[in-house]
Design brief:
Elements (H helix, E strand, L loop, with lengths): L2 E11 L5 E12 L2 E7 L11 E12 L1 E7 L13 H14 L4 H17 L2 E7 L4 H14 L2 E5 L1 E2 L12 H15 L2 H4 L1 E7 L7 H13 L4 E6 L3 H10 L6 H7 L7 E5 L5 H10 L2 E4 L1 H6 L7 H7 L2 E4 L11 H11 L7 H7 L2 H6 L17 E4 L16 H11 L5 E6 L2 E5 L15
Helix pairs in contact: 2-3, 3-4, 4-6, 12-13, 12-15, 13-15
The chain binds guanine and zinc ion.
The site of zinc ion (ZN) has 5 residues, from β5.
């Protein structure tokens, strides 16, 4: 197999802590796996056999990991003015019901995976809809386009509009069918997540079934929402009066542990935090969404200090942007009294998320032995960023990415060494969706 050498300014968090920062770096990739990352300023040289991709002084960084977003909602971004439950009823459920039409579902899924790649997201944890065929189609499209996903069919059997209310046993059986088909596909690039929407739309039978399938299939994920909005929490408390907390509802059905991903988790208490820590469950912090729906503020410092595993999620469409640079900025802004350093935020969108997802043996940083999921970033692509930014200290470059970055900075996106987005040939993105959604 050809040895590929990518030359540029390599910046990556390291498993051992700290930041790899080679101004004249060279990342060697063979067969989709990182063989080495070398510092050309330290008298190391590019192996003669390598095929060289000279990226100038552009940045080479780990691919971004989005720990929570909704595929069917890409058509619904920017529809504000409501708290969670009203927003779901007014905009979201109707958009999701349209996924009964698999042709429509395919069209939106193609757009979704193109957008993910264009935003530099190499791995995403994705809600689809309740529709088995639409979820199957989304996996097929992710498989073909090269994206790395943890994804699943949504399960809903209570308090939902008729078009989105399933028979409990059918919902569970279809989930298990999809799980058997897709979990672990292509050497683990595609993984399955059991996806009960949230407590409000789940009967006890549904949650018990999810807990039982999760226990039977070691390595499968569970992905759901937890304690996002006050009215949602009150609703769940009425449905499950015996539970100590919202998290306790999930726990009582065995939905807790490694490879469970709880989106939001804003209004949780110290017992919940202890429980999340002890069980190595993970959280997806979605600050842009929390701003948008005015849901509240994630207890970033408390949760980090307690050692809970977490990363960042765009939560499109409650989050208006798929760009994790925007999400990193909002994570900083939403904290009233804690400064989150750009390096910490970059960690949460890469290695921190990979650890939270139990995938850090293969992704999250640019280190030998990991799969070559990486992005090429050009901060000069925005006129708002000073033209000589790449000559500045690295912490200033990272700060520009966090506070001024978006999809315009992404020059290329690679998953396992395969180019899945090239800004130079992506002018077709400018050809907008012509059909109304
Ligand atoms: N809780 C249940 N469903 C949803 C959803 O689609 N978006 C968000 N932000 N929260 C939810
Ligand atoms: Zn969500």
């Amino acid at each position: 197999m050809v040895l590929e050498a990518y030359l540029g300014h390599v910046v990556s968090p390291l498993a051992a802590g700290g930041l790899l920062d080679y101004r004249r770096g060279c990342m060697l990739v063979r067969d989709g796996v990182i063989e080495d990352v070398i510092d050309l300023d330290r008298n190391q040289s590019v192996p003669a056999e390598a095929r060289v991709h000279d990226l100038g002084n552009r940045l080479i960084m780990p691919g971004l990991i989005d720990m929570h977003l909704h595929l069917p909602q890409v058509t619904q971004t920017g529809k504000s003015g409501q708290h969670l439950l009203a927003w779901l009823n007014q905009y979201i459920f109707a958009a999701e019901a349209r996924f009964a039409d698999t042709d429509h579902a395919r069209k939106i899924a193609r757009w979704f995976f193109d957008e993910l790649a264009a935003n530099g997201t190499t791995c995403a944890v994705v809600f689809t809809t309740i529709h088995k065929e639409a979820c199957d189609a989304a996996f097929e499209i992710a498989e073909a386009k090269g994206s790395r996903v943890i994804m699943g069919k949504v399960l809903m059997d209570a308090n939902s509009p008729p078009a989105l209310t399933e028979d409990t046993q059918t919902s569970l059986a279809e989930s298990e069918e999809l799980l058997r088909k897709w979990h672990g596909r292509d050497g683990g690039r595609l993984q399955y997540a059991l996806t009960p929407r949230f407590g409000v739309t789940s009967t006890p039978e549904l949650l018990a079934g999810v807990g039982e399938i999760y226990a039977r299939h070691k390595g499968v994920y569970v992905h759901t929402h937890l304690s996002e909005a006050r009215e949602e929490i009150q609703f769940v408390a009425k449905m499950y009066p015996g539970a100590r907390s919202y998290l306790d509802v999930y726990r009582s059905f065995g939905i807790i542990g490694r490879r469970t991903v709880f989106a939001h988790s804003i209004h949780i208490d110290s017992d919940d935090i202890d429980c999340l820590c002890q069980t190595q469950s993970s959280l997806a912090h979605c600050p842009s969404s929390n701003f948008f729906l005015k849901s509240g503020v994630f207890q970033y410092k408390t949760i980090k200090d307690a050692g809970v595993l977490f990363g960042l999620g765009s939560d499109v469409a409650a989050g208006p942007s798929m760009s994790l640079f925007n999400v990193m900025r909002d994570a900083n802004y939403i904290q009233a009294s804690h400064w989150l350093e750009p390096q910490e935020l970059l960690y949460r969108a890469t290695l921190g998320a990979a650890i939270a997802l139990d995938q850090d043996d293969r992704i999250g940083s640019l280190e030998a032995g990991k799969e070559a999921d990486f992005i090429v970033v050009d901060p000069t692509a925005r006129t708002a960023i000073v033209g000589d930014i790449l000559d500045h200290p690295t912490h200033e470059i990272l700060s520009a990415l966090v506070f001024l970055g978006d999809d315009r900075l992404i020059a290329r996106t690679y998953v396992r060494g395969r180019l899945i987005f090239d800004g130079q040939i992506a002018q077709n993105r400018l050809v907008k969706q012509t059909t109304s959604c």
